Amino acid sequence: MAAIMADVLQVFLLSPLSTFSVMVWIAALVLHALSPRLEARGAKPRLVARESDFSRFLAASVPAFSHAYAPPPWASHPTVQSVLAATVLRRASDVPFFRTHLQLRDRGLVALDWAGSSPSHPADAPQEQPQIIVLVLPDLGRDCSSVGDTCRAILGRGMRPVVLGQRGHGGVPLTTPRLQSYGDPTDLRQAIRFLRTHYGRCRVCVLGFGSGADLLLAYLGDTGSSSGLLAAVAVSPLYEPEKLLHDSPWPLELLRRRALQRIVEDHSGILARSADVDGALQATSWKELEQKVLWPACGVVTSHQYWERNAPLRDADDMATPLLCISSSDDPVVPTWALPMDVFQSDPQLLLLLTEKGGHCGFIGGFGGTSPTSSCLPRSWADGVALDFISATLDFTNRDRHRRKCATR
Fold first, then answer.
1. Which residue, of 132, 174, 225, 299, has the greatest Cβ tally within 10 A?
2. Transmembrane segments in this chain: where (predicted)?
């Protein structure tokens, strides 16, 4: 009976445009049509940051820091926001991507999926205005199309989006008998080094969602002042996945677990060298799946050992890159007690924008994506905030550099 139930849930939930997703989408459209009769309720986000010239500049430059975020009435429930974020939000199939593979030191492969045009164009940016490359880190198991609308918004700001496809994810070949651990920034570090080396006149920023946001936090702590990034934005990081992944609410726990199980199934041949593939495919909890697949890759035998190496905030004190985290108080995955307020209150470059509503990776702002073909799809308020933050950080950096030049004359 349990197996039949799992199969039914898989059909309903796991395809991006599955029956369940379409039902939620249609219901949202109907409620959207009725929304003029409903009252949209919102509140001004809370900015958690140490007072500084940087935080004051951002407060004056980023509209979302001083204006209320009011999700449409049909998206006021966090489960609706989170399910749409896991299925249709940010998705676009009409954005062209050009894939290049990057071979890593251990002969593994990651993909760089460039949106809009071939990757040769960033190097042609005018010298007087270096172009910004935004490296996008999708949530677990997602591919470039799952952030297609985000990439289109980035292109609309005159920036170049490129999506990192992790080893074994989203059609990327798995050439090593292991997947990347949850918070291991090794592959990300090599990808960023490649971008900075080959597109030297471009400034690199990173935008991460969910598990991609946690990977970004781990990278920033690991590299400190040598991150090589202009700015970073983390949307709905878990902060403490070691405490939260095992207790995520249904259906989000199922979506995450099945996403990893599909990856294991796709690469069962090579993973069988180091992981218990059969046990992983039969796992009924994230902890069991983690134990069968991810622990062996790290050479650990306990959960404590695994997260001691992979916790995103293990080196939080070393972060030295302008960072905006966007979280919601009603996130069903990340309760407010898990928010590391002390981290944001101690470093002037680290900021938390905490909304009242938004769910997990949702922050829906209504219907109408970034193109006419996505007019019936939900759009994300957080994506615009992220790009405003990146632009404002560039302005602040340029202004600060100009001041230092004037002071030395």
1. 132
2. 12-34
The CA radius of gyration of the chain, in Å to the nearest whole number, is 21
Q: How many domains does the chain have?
A: 1
Tokens of 357: 């509503």
Q: Average pLDDT of 204-226?
A: 98
User: pLDDT tens for residues 24-38?
Assistant: 555 555 555 555 555
- The Cα–Cα gap between 384 and 317 comes to 28
DSSP states along 251-278 = THHHHHHHHHHHHHHHTHHHHTTTS-HH
Domain range for 103: 2-408
- Calpha distance 370→347 (Å, rounded): 34
The enclosing domain of 227 has a CATH number of: 3.40.50.1820
For the cut 50, the answer to whether the pLDDT of residue 12 exceeds it is no
Residue 395 bears catalytic tag: no
**Taking a C-beta distance cutoff of 8 angstroms, is the pair 242, 400 a contact?**
no
Angstrom distance (rounded) from CA 95 to CA 156 = 12
DSSP state for residue 291 in the 8-state scheme: I
Phi, psi (rounded to 5 degrees) for 353: -105, 110
Q: Active-site residue 331, yes or no?
A: yes
Q: Which of 139, 276, 330, 331 is catalytic?
A: 331
pLDDT of residue 240: 95
For range 304-321, the mean pLDDT: 95
For the stretch 348-374, pLDDT in tens is: 999 999 999 999 999 999 876 555 555
CA pair distance 115, 164, nearest whole angstrom: 11
**C-alpha span between 315 and 90 (Å, rounded):** 30
Q: Which residues partner with 85 through β-bridges?
A: none
pTM of the model as a whole: 0.89
pLDDT at residue 251 in the model? 85
